[in-house]
Amino acid sequence: MIKRFEKIIENAMNEVTSDVYLVGGHPMVVRKQGVVSFQYDVRWSHQEIDHLVTQLLTRRQLESLRIRKSVDFAVSIKQARLRVNVFNTTRGLSLAIRLLPGHIPTIEDLNLHPSLREIAKLKAGLILTCGATGVGKSTTIASIINDINNSRSAHIVTLENPIEYRFQSNKSFIQQRELGTHIPSFEQGLLDVLRENPNVIVVGELREAETMRLTLNAAESGHLVIATLHASNPEEAIYRLCNSVPVEAQNEIRYQLASTLSWLIVQQLSYQEKIGFRVPVLTIVRGSSSVKNIIRENKLQQLNSAVQMGKSDGMFSAERYQDEYLAIRSNFVSPIKTFSPSSEVSQEIMYHSPLVDEFYEPVTPVKRKITTISSPETVNMVLDPGFDNGEHMLTIEEVGSLEDVINRMTSK
To answer: Using one digit for the tens of pLDDT, what is the confidence trace for 228-279?
Structure first.
């Protein structure tokens, strides 16, 4: 099954296919340049899909599939990075496969405002990237991390779900940890990371209250922390963070957020008629003194006014971003070029240590028996502690002259 699957991925890369859909008893479906089409000559049975899934998923992922009836993961096949969602349907298990670009897009490739390059220079603070699912938050963060990697020396630790882009250390030392594979939870990952002496911490998703609290603690302790949050506007993002804890603890959270917030970016995708494709539209809030006071005093209704008046501080509302940046920009990079499937730049081996597997059992070396004959009449059994294949060895220890040995042998 794996070889057949590898061939499909290889063909998809050659034909610049962005998505592949596999489900039992149905022709394979592909998406090219946004257009869905059927591949009637490629059809998998329900049992073949089941077999493929068992080969692609780890034991932990299979358990998640049984409980949640779906699972997200990323995997490298034929030098292509794939983001895969396995989910249950009326036809059985179905796979939605997105072929990711092998290189990490730059801020320019993503048609983002060039001011985002300033984030790479920060040594501490909180960077929040917000928006709905599928608007490109993770890709924006990847471009920022790559900027840091190419511009300065730092230790970067990422906590992701799943790992979509694989980084290759350049000027920075980057270590990536995936939820369910390398960490049991974002909370545990954040507790671990503070013992790993990082300069930059990336948190894939702020969802649970404890994750939010630990993220703010990490930013407050002098790290640069970059995180994503589901929110449609800056006010909602701040409200979600501040109201993630009981009422008696909300003042503390507000003060932490006010003291650490450097950038709050809300991202959405908007179709631009003049160029014929979608580009990111950003709302950018910077951690100015006025913004910090608004958060500290819990006057979030004034936040929009602060953004409108913060043009000199590099702030944008979505409307001003459209009118003052996108409307006057002349050159845009097509997403077909940016997101075309390609071989991964990083060729590092993805190794899973069996020592962290819950089913792992240490193998005790099997000792070999050595039969030592010091004389024809005496046989001693000894153990060789360095041998591990369970075989026996016979050795003869000669204690007299060769003539004595020959005489004893011939006399019998």
So the answer is: 999 999 999 999 999 988 888 899 999 999 999 999 999 999 999 999 999 9
- Rounded to an integer, what distance in angstroms lies between the CA atom of residue 23 and that of residue 29? 9
197 and 323 share a domain?
yes
Does residue 41 lie in a domain region? yes
Residues 185 and 315 in one domain: yes
Kindly report the CA angle at 35 between 73 and 39, in degrees rounded to 5?
75
At residue 9 the predicted structure's pLDDT band, cuts being 50, 70 and 90, is: very high
Number of domains in the chain: 3
pLDDT of 108 over the 50 cut: yes
Beta-strand pair 277-286/261-272: antiparallel
Last residue of a domain, one of 48, 76, 100: 100
By the 10 Å C-beta count (0-12 exposed, 13-18 middle, 19+ buried), 411 is classed as: exposed
Question: Higher-confidence residue: 193 or 404?
Answer: 193
Q: Does residue 77 sit in the same domain as residue 173?
A: no
Of 158, 145, 167, 105, nearest to 346 (Cα)? Answer: 167
Q: Is 54 within the bounds of a domain?
A: yes
- With bands split at pLDDT 50, 70 and 90, how would you rate the model's confidence at 105? very high
pTM: 0.79
- CATH number for the domain that contains residue 17: 3.30.450.90
Determine the structural domain holding residue 188 and report its residue range: 114-340
